[in-house]
Write a structure and sequence with these properties.
This protein has 1 helix and 4 strands, in the order E-E-E-H-E. With 69 residues, the chain is mainly beta. It has a single domain, classed as RNA polymerase II/Efflux pump adaptor protein, barrel-sandwich hybrid domain (OB fold (Dihydrolipoamide Acetyltransferase, E2P), Beta Barrel). It has a 4-stranded antiparallel beta sheet with strand order 3-2-1-4.
């Protein structure tokens, strides 16, 4: 896989919660933090996502929002 996004984390899926339309996928990062992605149920099925599957989390910088108090 080749992609221009530089923020990539190769880890394993820890939880998959399918809904009627959207599936929530949780991936635990090396430091213990959990990243949650909401994708279509169809996409999750096509990818065959299940706990233990190896995945790459890709974070595009323009899709990250920072806030302060």
């Amino acid at each position: 896989m080749r992609i221009s996004a530089r923020n990539q984390f190769s880890r394993s899926v820890v939880e998959v919660s399918p809904g009627a339309v959207t599936t929530t996928v949780k991936v635990q990062l090396a430091g213990g933090d959990v990243v949650t992605s909401s994708i279509t149920k169809e996409a999750a099925d096509e990818l065959g996502l299940a706990p233990g599957n190896a995945v790459t989390v890709i974070v595009k910088a323009s899709d990250v929002i920072l806030a302060v108090e």
